[in-house]
Amino acid sequence: MAQKKYTVADTGPRIDEFLKNVFQLAGFQLAFTVAEGETPHPDFENPDLMVRFTGADVDLLLANKAELLLALEQLTMEAIGMAPEEHSRICFDANDRRILRIEELRMSAQAASERVKKSRQPFHFSPMNSRERRILHLALRDETDVRSESVGEGPIRQVVIVPAEMKTLPEPVIPPKPRPELDATGGRPGFRDRGRGGRDGDRRGGPSRGGPRGPRRDHR
Fold first, then answer.
1. What is the set of domains in the chain, with CATH numbers?
2. pTM for the full predicted model
3. Under 8 Å CB-to-CB from 69, ≥6 apart: which residues?
4. How far, CA to CA in Å, does 185 sit from each of 75, 139, 188, 192?
5. Interior CA angle at 146 toward 142 and 151, to 5°?
6. Mean predicted confidence (pLDDT) in 41-53
7. If you write DSSP's letter for every residue of 170-182 in order, what string do you get?
8. In Å, how far from its chain's centre is CA 142?
9. pLDDT at residue 5 greater than cutoff 50
């Protein structure tokens, strides 16, 4: 049975409607075009459709390793009812980020492979979406001393490279939670500096040692 083909005529209007609604609600200053897919890296990707973005807010799409661009891509595919195994058939891009990312993943896969060959220890990549995991797997498909596997579920699903003879896969590595943002004074919002004793008042909130009268002396 032939795989479903996504075309500009059939799928383009549905993508267009969804994205315009999102941009209007979010206030994004973005334009986009839906065109037949390009294959600069045919060994890794052969999308049916390419959605390219331009406009004042392109930098927002590409910030934090294109987090917003990838999220928008995922939401669009869900909105038009694409099956997970077909997600590689539509690709979102801006400023040729996709081409650069494929090359980055390919080189990272090769470097990690060499590391595992020498150490004989597993190497975990950070969690990625299914498309980027697929690129890592394809980059290593001809290796005989190591192999790549996907471990974990949902948002922590990630690629791990292991020695070819390893039978039991390691557990996924759970990324650390982001640290709280610092306030203007360098401390955590809502927290006082409790490690300085009486300098900022005692821990019960009373006046500092020396009483309320007279100026405090700076002993630095």
1. 8-95 (3.30.300), 100-163 (3.30.1370.50)
2. 0.66
3. 53, 61, 62, 92, 93, 94, 97
4. 38, 47, 9, 10
5. 105
6. 85
7. PPPPPPPPPPPPP
8. 26
9. yes
